[in-house]
C-alpha cells in the first residue's frame, strides 16, 4: 500500500508548499491575493497530479497504471495539496489579522462595485445575503475556499489524467 502513496506524498506536499508560496508572494504585490492564487492553483493542481501519477507509473509500478491506482494516487495528491495550502493560508491570516481585514475589505468593495450587475442577475435579496456573508467572513473561510478550489479541479484532473496515463499489463 505504501508504494501507492510515496509519489502522492511527494508531489502533494510539493504542490501544497507551492500553493502557500504563491499566496505569500502574491500578497506582496496585491492587497487581495486570493483570486490570483486560485488561478495558480488551477495550474499547480493538475501538474502535481500528473507528476505524481507519472512518477508512480514509471518508478513504482513497472510502467503500468490502472484507473483505480490513478484515482487513489491522485486523490491523496490533491487532498495533501489542499490541506497544506489550507493550513498555511490559515496560519498566515491568523498571524496577520490586518492582512485578513484588508482582504475582507477588498471582497466587500468588489461586491459593492458589481452591485448593479449582481442584482440584475440574482436579485436584491441574494445580493444582500452575499454581502452580509462576506462581511461576517473569518480567516478560515478564505483558507477553506482556497482548499475547495484545489479539491474540485483535483478530482476532475485526476479522472482525466488517470485515463490518459492508464496502461494495464496485457
Automatic annotation (TrEMBL):
Pfam families: DUF4199 (PF13858). It comes from the Bacteria. InterPro entries: DUF4199. Keywords: Membrane, Transmembrane, Transmembrane helix. The chain crosses the membrane at residues 7-30, 36-53, 73-95, 147-165. This is DUF4199 domain-containing protein.
Amino acid at each position: 500500500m505504501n508504494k501507492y502513496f510515496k509519489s502522492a506524498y511527494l508531489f502533494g506536499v510539493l504542490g501544497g508548499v507551492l500553493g502557500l508560496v504563491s499566496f505569500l508572494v502574491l500578497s506582496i504585490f496585491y492587497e487581495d491575493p486570493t483570486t490570483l492564487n486560485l488561478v495558480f492553483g488551477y495550474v499547480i493542481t493538475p501538474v502535481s497530479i500528473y507528476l505524481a501519477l507519472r512518477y508512480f507509473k514509471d518508478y513504482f509500478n513497472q510502467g503500468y497504471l490502472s484507473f483505480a491506482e490513478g484515482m487513489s494516487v491522485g486523490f491523496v495528491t490533491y487532498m495533501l495539496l489542499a490541506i497544506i495550502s489550507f493550513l498555511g493560508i490559515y496560519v498566515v491570516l491568523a498571524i496577520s489579522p490586518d492582512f485578513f481585514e484588508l482582504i475582507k475589505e477588498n471582497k466587500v468593495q468588489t461586491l459593492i462595485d458589481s452591485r448593479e450587475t449582481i442584482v440584475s442577475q440574482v436579485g436584491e435579496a441574494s445580493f444582500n445575503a452575499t454581502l452580509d456573508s462576506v462581511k461576517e467572513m473569518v480567516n478560515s473561510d478564505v483558507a477553506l475556499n482556497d482548499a475547495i478550489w484545489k479539491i474540485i479541479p483535483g478530482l476532475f484532473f485526476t479522472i482525466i489524467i488517470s485515463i490518459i496515463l492508464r496502461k494495464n499489463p496485457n
